[in-house]
Specification:
This protein has about 140 residues and is α+β, with helices and mostly antiparallel strands. The chain has 3 helices and 4 strands. The protein has a 4-stranded antiparallel sheet, with helices on one face. The longest helix is centred in the middle third of the chain and has 19 residues.
């Protein structure tokens, strides 16, 4: 697997008259999943699109993109999800979390992470362990 790119230093696809760079932005998220979003944000190339902690006994949901999606619409995401994230989560938490990769209407590859009620904290711990493992490589 390729080493993860430091997206904070990488320039994005140029927009005429606007040079852009990656930055982590503070945004409001549901209180019960702040730790989850922070754990996902520890992967520099991961961009969270939307999230919901769920209501009553619903699943927690997070949608994200990964890597150079404007250059490689699906490759970076597929490599990250199928080659790294899914096997690590499966080992740590079994089927309490699932990952679905799909193409959006405009052709961008997205990943949908869903987590069963009561498994968010274990998912956060798994993500932190996976991030440490990725940093050691």
């Amino acid at each position: 697997m390729n080493e993860e790119k430091d997206m904070s230093e990488k320039e994005t696809k140029p927009i005429p008259g606007h040079q852009q760079s990656w930055a982590k932005v503070n945004v409001p998220v549901d209180s019960e999943i702040v730790g989850l979003i922070e754990a996902l944000s520890a992967f520099p190339a991961l961009e969270t699109i939307e999230s919901c902690q769920g209501h009553d006994n619903d699943l927690t949901r997070v949608c994200f993109m990964y890597g150079d999606y404007w250059v490689h619409p699906w490759h970076d995401l597929a490599e990250f999800v199928f080659g790294f994230l899914a096997p690590g989560l499966a080992k740590d938490i079994g089927d309490d979390a699932s990952l679905i990769v799909r193409l959006s209407e405009n052709g961008v590859a997205l990943c949908h992470l869903t987590i069963r009620p009561g498994a968010v904290k274990r998912t956060v711990n798994s993500l932190k362990r996976l991030q440490e493992h990725k940093n050691e490589r």
